[in-house]
Every structure is written in C-alpha cells, then in structure tokens.
Design goal:
CATH superfamily of chain B: NAD(P)-binding Rossmann-like Domain
Order of helices and strands of chain A: EHEHEHEHEHEHHHE
CATH architecture of chain B: 3-Layer(aba) Sandwich
Oligomer: heterodimer
CATH topology of chain B: Rossmann fold
CATH superfamily of chain A: NAD(P)-binding Rossmann-like Domain
Structural class of chain B: mainly alpha
Strand content of chain B: 5-15%
Mean pLDDT of chain B: 94
Structural class of chain A: alpha/beta
Distance between the termini of chain B: 33 Å
Largest sheet of chain B: 2 strands, parallel
Number of domains of chain B: 1
Mean pLDDT of chain A: 95
Number of helices of chain B: 4
CATH architecture of chain A: 3-Layer(aba) Sandwich
Strand content of chain A: 5-15%
Strand order of the largest sheet of chain A: 3-2-1-4-5-6-7
Strand order of the largest sheet of chain B: 1-2
Shape of chain A: globular
Radius of gyration of chain A: 17 Å
Shape of chain B: globular
Number of strands of chain A: 7
Number of strands of chain B: 4
Largest sheet of chain A: 7 strands, parallel
Distance between the termini of chain A: 22 Å
Order of helices and strands of chain B: EHEHEHEH
CATH topology of chain A: Rossmann fold
C-alpha cells in the first residue's frame, strides 16, 4: 500500500528560527523543509565531507547547499554552515553564526548521526568513537552551546534524533546502540536542568526511514544487516513490511514536540517506528 | 475533538451530567450514559455510536477514577473496581468496536482506501512509575 498522506495537521512557526544539524539530506533536510513550510527561518548544518571511520559517503557541501536552496525556494531565509558536530570549536562557531544572523534560536534539532556495522571484537576504537562523538557527543555539544541563547530569549525546544536503538539492541551495532541509548539519558538530564529556563528537551526515536543512512549501509556491503534485524525481531514496519517510512513521518513528530501544543512535554522518548519496538 | 470538526458521542456514569454537557459541545453530539463496568454496557456504547453516526474513527478510553488505599487495607472490592474501570472496560470497548472496524477496513481495502482508526487509552504516570496507595 502507498505511504499515508497527512491530511489534517498544520503548524505555525512564523518568526521562529530552527537549527537542524545533519541537514544535508535525509531526515535533517526533511525537518528543515517541514519547519520552513510552517513559516520558520532555518539554519542548516552538515559536515560536508566523508568520515574515514564511517563506511559510506556522507552528505556533501553541495547537498547542504541544495537543502538551503529548497528552503529559500519556499520564501524562508536559510543559513547553511559547514560543521562537524563532534568538534566543539566548530559547534561554537555554528551557534555564533546562527545568533549573529537571526538573533535567536527557538528550536534545535540534534539530527546529525552516523552508523557502521561491526562485530564487537572487530570494532576499532576509531569506529566506536566516530559514532559516539558524532551521535551522542554532537548532541551534547550543540545543546550545551545553544541552551544559553534559548535561556536568554525566554525558552526554547531542544530535540534529538534517537533511534529504535535508543530502546533496544540490534546486532553488530554496539557503538550505535550505546550512543542512541546515551542520548535518552542526555535528554532526561537536560530536561531536568533546563526546565527552569523554559527549555523542553525530548527525543524522537525513528525506526527504519528511507534515507542516505540505510542506502549507505547497503552500498558499503551491509545490505544483509536489515534482514538480519527483521529475522531477529520482525518487520521494520507493521503497517507495510515492504516499505520504510519517509522522513516526513519523523518531521511531524518534531513539529509537534517543537510546537506550543507540547508545552508541558519534556524528557520524553517518542518512538516513531511503525511498531518496530512493540514486539 | 469537536473544535477540530469531529462528531462526538460522550459517555458518563452520571446521565444528568452527560445530558448537560452534550449541548455545551459545539458539534453534533450523542450521549450514552451509564456505568461501563455493567454487563453489556460496552457493547451498547459501541452500538450507540454506530447508530448515531454510522461509523467510529477515534475512541478515547478516558473513563476512570481513583479509589486509593494502602495495600494492607485495600479490599478485594477496591482492587477489582480499579481493574474493572481501567483495564477491563477499555478491553471490552475495543472488543465491541473491533467487528465494525474490521468490516469497514475490509471494504475500504477493496476500494484501495486506507483509513487509520485510532484507539487511545488514558493511562497515568502512576502506570509507569508507581505511587503510594
């Protein structure tokens, strides 16, 4: 069956500024476009180059420029910044540029993430660190540097892209499971600490989404990994095992959590996984 | 729900309260009053909704109350009452709606249409973390 259209939901982020990391393609690009469609101006970042410890091609600088072009085509302003979220000096510079351009950051979406597949005995420390430093470390660094700007403006929303692997383990993914689980701890700690500043912190946990990440894994020789997972635990998508969700399904969760409709929702772990983790 | 354009059937254990509330809702409404823990009540509730509007798209299992007590003073009646309203009633409501939803989904499937009906249960943080009494 075809993917479901969303018929009856509208959000209004007019006058708000949204910062999305890992926005060169995939879910990050979808979030940038989704918030732009709701009236926001957007800051998009990506590292714009490959990582030697990640076995597939990452988004390029041209991909990030394309995201920016698509946002501007909607009539919204867009600032595109090269940034490796694992590097604190680059994160500081990203936030400084965003604040310089727009004077505010209302929503931060910590979306940048990488993956690889290794048996634990074969997992190099470099492969481990690449995933931990980007996925978990990046979310820490961006949240650390954005929170003061949000607090000064009276509040804000920090969101993280988790994973079903924030909740369950999957084979040959020790680093990714650890990082994605760690991101749950991160949001609980941050939600607690930042509530007095009116900052909500939540994590959305996608299941299988049709983006460059699974495509990259398949291209790097790990096309069996997805089937290995379904043999272990059942389908990625209970509604239709033959398709992965589109990124826009995750965007809707981000839009809701970033909206006034979720004013008292903080520290939550929201799976958007077509039923993957309920089995 | 009404503000978003839905037609609404409401239930309350207190018929007077339900009848008073219905006209306050700015939408097409129907009422099925009564204690849902009584035998047959959940079947009648589902039937009333289908009679009133032809179909049900969203069910909100919200009816509930607290009857707290420390464990050593909680009677069987108290414990059963909590199970009845919070667990058994939502199950019975789902069971009563299921044949309508299955039939409708089969017809829609033949027409190539997908309708995702929603069953929402009101739980509590107490259901996740516990609470004294």
């Amino acid at each position: 069956m075809a993917a479901r259209p969303v018929r009856n939901v509208r959000y209004d982020f007019t006058h708000q500024v949204v910062l999305v990391t890992g926005a060169g393609r995939g879910q990050g690009r979808a979030h940038a476009l989704g918030f732009a469609a709701a009236g926001a101006d957007v800051v998009v970042s990506d590292r714009g180059s490959d990582n030697p410890d990640v076995p597939y091609a990452l988004a390029s600088a041209a991909d990030l420029e394309e995201t920016a072009r698509l946002v501007r085509k909607m009539g919204r302003r867009c600032l595109a910044v090269d940034c490796d979220v694992a590097a604190e000096d680059q994160v500081e510079a990203l936030v400084a540029k965003a604040v310089e351009e727009f004077s505010r950051i209302d929503v931060l979406i910590n979306n940048a993430g990488v993956i690889s597949v290794h048996e634990v005995g074969e997992m190099s420390h470099a492969a481990w660190s690449a995933v931990l430093d980007t996925n978990l470390g990046g979310a820490f660094l961006c949240s650390k540097h954005v929170a003061p700007a949000m607090a000064a403006a009276g509040g804000g929303k920090i969101l993280l892209t988790g994973s079903v692997e924030s909740l369950v383990g999957l084979p040959r993914n020790t680093h990714y499971v650890a990082a994605k689980h760690g991101m749950v701890g991160l949001i609980r700690a941050l939600a607690l600490e930042l509530a007095p500043q009116n900052i909500n912190v939540n994590i959305v946990c996608p299941g299988g989404v049709d983006t460059g990440m699974p495509a990259g894994l398949a291209a790097s020789g790990q096309e069996d990994w997805f089937e290995e997972c379904t043999n272990l635990t059942g389908p990625w998508n209970l509604f239709d095992p033959t398709i992965m969700m589109g990124s826009e399904e995750i965007t809707h969760a981000m839009l809701w959590l970033a909206s006034d409709a979720a004013a008292y929702v903080t520290g939550v772990v929201l799976p958007v996984d077509a039923g993957f983790t309920i089995k | 729900m009404a503000a978003a354009g839905a037609k609404v059937l409401i239930n309350d254990v207190d018929a007077d309260v339900a009848e008073q509330t219905a006209p306050e809702i700015d939408a097409a409404t129907a009422v099925y009053a009564g204690d849902l823990t009584k035998e047959g009540a959940c079947d009648n509730l589902a039937a009333a909704a289908v009679d009133a509007f032809g179909t049900v798209d969203i069910c909100l299992n919200n009816a509930g109350y607290t009857w707290d007590g420390v464990a050593h003073r909680t009677t069987d009646e108290q414990f059963q009452a909590m199970l009845d309203i919070h667990t058994i009633v939502p199950f019975r409501v789902a069971r009563a709606l299921a044949p309508h939803w299955r039939e409708a989904a089969k017809k829609e499937g033949e027409e190539g249409v997908e309708v995702f009906r929603k069953l929402i249960n009101t739980s509590s943080t107490t259901g996740m973390f516990g609470n004294p009494g």
